[in-house]
Amino acid sequence: MAAFVTHITLEHLEHLGQPDPDDLSGKTPSQKATAQARAKGYDGICLPLTNDQWKARWRELCLLHPEGSPDAAALEQSAEKWRAKPGFLRDEVTITRLDEAENSIILLSDWLELDAADAWVRHDAEIALQQELAYASYLNVHTAILPPPRNREHVASYARIINAVLSSVPYMQLSVRMPIYDPSLIHLDYGSTNAATCTTSTKPVADHPSIATWEMWDTIRCICDYHPRLTLALDLTPPLPSSMDVLRQWVAEPTRHLFLPASTFMPNAKGYPVLPKSTQSFMREIMKLQPVVMFSGTSDGLHTKGGEAAYSQYIRHLEKTSPAVKAMRTEGTVENFAQGYQDYLQAPLQPLMDNLQSITYQTFEQDPIKYRQYEEAVFLALSRWQKPGKITICVAGAGRGPLVARCLTAMKRANKEAFVYAVEKNPNAYVTLQERQRAEWGDKVQLLFGDMRALNVPEQVDILVSELLGSFGDNELSPECLDGAMRFLKPEGISIPASYSAFLAPISSSKLYNEARVSKDEKGMETPYVVMLQSIKILSGDGGGLSGKCGPQIQECWEFEHPRRDAVLNDQGLPLTNSHNTRAAKLTFHIPHGGALHGLAGYFEAVLYGNIGISIHPERMDKISKDMLSWFPLFFPFKEPLYLPSKSELQVTIWRLTNQRQVWYEWYAETFLALPDASPLVSVTSAPRTSGGDSLKIPSDKVAVEWSPFIDNIEMPETPRSGRVFTVDDAGIRLVKIGQTSLHNPGGRSSWIGL
Ligand SMILES: C[S@@+](CC[C@H](N)C(=O)[O-])C[C@H]1O[C@@H](n2cnc3c(N)ncnc32)[C@H](O)[C@@H]1O
């Protein structure tokens, strides 16, 4: 559940500080505020650390002594003394005791301009911030909210200061208060191309105000090198962006707090406070991250009905009705099953090289959907079976036997005589199989111990059933194992599964990026992980993009079919090499809104038999195998985040490679901006086509390229040099390459699957 706290203002604290003859408790104002908040059902309070006296002193020391004024020299002396030994006077702070800080979130002085245009102001604001944090640290404060960045021009200075303070306070969580829109850009005229003006900058920073805000955040956390203690306090003060797609990007960020003033609410027909539609949807989605909601101004009587409690009751209602939260609380769903595993990176299983433990099989067997789908597939195959005589089935990789049991049930249901061979190479699971054969299956099943690529089955079978699939389909070596097992499938026999495909989508997730690089070695960033994805945003959108060449949001990489007829076999019926199982895919994604690419999400889908399948493809899983628990997606990390501007195109190349002993993946990405050739910024008359930019054939009237903030960051040589290339299309569109990743996992140096 999300925690709720109430924002205590300085006025409120002052009021609580007035002597009350009836109150003999001796509590400090902040303790009284906490007690009152608890009585109203809040989990705690957030309050400013300093008061107006500190603000006045700092201003006097650091701002208000123009040269030439009579006391300028004395003030400069005092300022230097303060700079040398910064510290508070008792009356400048709101709390002094450990227990006051214990359950409170501390707001550092929000008037500190760490990104002021004046370098001296920034300098003194940094000293003041260090002083506030040192005091907060003295009081053992766990979480402090930083003043918001305000000035895009100097956001790098802001970020440098935050980076410095992160290393000077060892334990505290520091949360950047981030207005969800950028006030300095809100008046921009986005209708014109480059004539926009704003107060702080002469050109727009991005194509959408809230993207600009996100970019400021991106700059800050990049300069702070994705520090794990740096989080976000999203300030939901209106006006808020209405595009859910833009709001969704905050779900992929370390959003820990939501600052929610009463003014964000509007009255419904009955006068109760409610949120606008898009903010409702956003709240429902972000609630899965269990943020701390910081209510503010809720006792000011801004809305006529419901009183103060109405605000938190309403947010609790949004939480309860959030599809993601509901799924987590409903038994039988993946979200419920995965509690505690969200965004937790796991090394994929190696069931071929390693022998699985009984407890791992037990976890598989908790998934009723997978086995139901397999039983239905076998049932359908048996029902359609026309040939006379006994049918033979082989379960290849039987584990502890659940698929064997399902085959027997399907036989009964289809009223067909069949015999089952169960092959397993794990000697430990083979003991369980023997026990089940003795107790349950009798002579309907024959067990065979060994590796399906080497062992002989007494006869060729009609149906080969296997489940050797990983989150990416082929990543647990199903293709290689089934190549071996095909020897004991009759030429006209059926393989269940009949085929499986791998899918990819580019994702942003600061959480996963940080998790993957925790080990600090390159290996960790070149390993695909199994992970229940939660704090992510899929960066791609549907639609062809400006070039008209982009595929859907989630794209298929490749497919494996069984039985396959194209491999060249030796005398024993085994493939001579594994070359036929190598694959390569080049996928082009349209990126509608800017974001940081941290990795690729991998999914699979399998056709078991006929129209029966299993899928973890986010858009199709509910139709094909809803609530199937067995597989979480795969995450292919990138070593460095790759910035993708709005309306850019991302090309991802992924390879499945192999040698005699191993199979591994290599992956790589490049990013392009599509620009109209008529751009006044550069004139390029001829440029070579490169592999990165295919010929583009789209009518120029389809092209609606907006002013891009990145054009002036892109160095455009007259003659293309390596590393930055562009192509010109007949219709006047150029794809300008603006970035690339390194090749990940070359030669399987960091991760591979053993054959
Ligand atoms: C993912 S488990 C599935 C187990 C079981 N069929 C189920 O669905 O619960 C795959 C099983 O195949 C076995 N296996 C993998 N490769 C094999 C091979 N080459 N020969 C025989 N068994 C294999 C593993 O030991 C493991 O028991």
Automatic annotation (TrEMBL):
GO process annotations (BP):
methylation; regulation of DNA-templated transcription
Give the PRMT5 oligomerisation domain ranges. Answer: 499-753
Summarize where S-adenosyl-L-methionine binds, as residue positions: 361, 370-371, 424, 451-452
Q: Where is the active site?
A: 467 (proton donor/acceptor), 476 (proton donor/acceptor)
Residue ranges of the PRMT5 arginine-N-methyltransferase domain? 335-496
UniProt-listed Pfam families:
PRMT5, PRMT5_C, PRMT5_TIM
Sorted alphabetically, which keywords does the UniProt record give?
Methyltransferase, S-adenosyl-L-methionine, Transferase
GO-annotated molecular function: protein-arginine N-methyltransferase activity
Note the InterPro entries from the entry.
Arg_MeTrfase, Arg_MeTrfase_PRMT5, PRMT5, PRMT5_C, PRMT5_TIM, SAM-dependent_MTases_sf
- Quote the cellular component terms of the Gene Ontology held in the record: cytosol; nucleus
Q: Does the keyword Hydrolase apply?
A: no
Q: Which residues form the PRMT5 TIM barrel domain?
A: 41-320
Q: Where is this site: Critical for specifying symmetric addition of methyl groups?
A: 364
The similarity comment for this entry is:
Belongs to the class I-like SAM-binding methyltransferase superfamily.
- Protein name per UniProt: Protein arginine N-methyltransferase
Whose protein is this, by species? Phlebiopsis gigantea (strain 11061_1 CR5-6)
Q: What is the lineage of its organism?
A: Eukaryota, Fungi, Dikarya, Basidiomycota, Agaricomycotina
